[in-house]
Amino acid sequence: MVLVTGATGILGRVIVLELLKRGKSVRAAKRATSNLQEVRDSLRFYTNNPDVFFDQIHWVDVDFEDIFSLKKALEDIDEVYHCAAFVSFNPKDCRKIFQTNIEGTKQLLYACENSVKKFLFVSSIAVLDGLNEQGVTDETCDYNPKTEHSEYASSKHFSEMEVWRASAEGMNVAIVNPGLIIGSGNWGASSGTIFKKYLDNSYSFSGSTAYVDVRDVAKISVDLMEKNIFGERFILTSENVKYYEMANLIRRKAQIKDVKLAPLYALKAGIVLNRLFGWLIPPLRMATKTNIEAITTDSKISNQKIVNRLDYDFIPIEESVDFHLKNYLSK
């Protein structure tokens, strides 16, 4: 049996579905407060038989701070897909980010000892720093502790360290580092908010990031486990796109006028205002040096390693947007 953590998230639910389609028996970890009806409803975007697959899922409430809860969830489990994480770039969420992402991963790995044979960890491209000789970021570009990072990026790096420790102790592990995931459902959290943000905000930014369809991340993750490819990390991205270009792509398809480019001087002024008044005005706390650099830097992320290893063709970003935006607007 397979355990998927974060199974109600934008990625976890699709990994669960991919496993079920391949005939696996799946136990899905959730919070006691999770909205399972929303998950059931969202499966219709990915299959013609959403109820049939949903009814095959073995749901279990898991408290990552309770080792006994974790051990119970891991009974008879051979493989784990660890998708659970708290995604935020707001400094006010620092404690929750580190508690959920680092301590949660550490606790889960401890509970997995001597029982789980395969472990896949979903990390992020946010942990990768620098460029290779070709001027792009790839799997050789490791986290630089001397560089200032967001709390989220740091939490994912230290979570990876826990996973590599388990690997050194004999567990078969793989790490995937997806770009910004485009998917359907879970519209109010994590990257599920992408369409609302791009449609509601009339300003965007000059930088870029790498995007990937949730279906690609799910399929590749399961392929890596089935092919027993362990002890490595893989960047999962389809294309590098500027923020304002992605915003305009989405807005044009929704027949909304293009965004304006936020001027750099205004963004830098936000950093100063944050230092002066961030304690008084919570929205200003997002204007950190790290966040401003992230949205104004032209990132180039390479997916060549996974493309070469699996001979994989990613879903083009425009096709991905067409599919998921239609689902978002239909809600």
Structure overview:
With 331 residues, the protein is α/β, with parallel strands linked by helices. It has a domain at 2-185 and 211-240 and 300-315: NAD(P)-binding Rossmann-like Domain (Rossmann fold), CATH 3.40.50.720. Helices cover 42% and strands 15% of the residues. The chain has 13 helices and twelve strands. The chain has helices at 12-21, 36-42, 50-54, 67-73, 94-112, 151-168, 194-200, 214-226, 243-253, 264-277, 289-296, 304-310, 317-330; strands at 2-5, 26-30, 58-61, 79-82, 118-122, 172-178, 180-182, 203-204, 208-213, 233-236, 239-242, 260-261. It has a seven-stranded parallel sheet with strand order 3-2-1-4-5-6-10, with helices on both faces. A three-stranded mixed sheet has the order 7-9-11. Helix 5 links the parallel strand 4 (79-82) and strand 5 (118-122). Helix 1 packs across helix 8, helix 4 crosses helix 5 and helix 5 runs parallel beside helix 6 (151-168). The chain starts with a strand and ends with a helix. The mean pLDDT is 95.
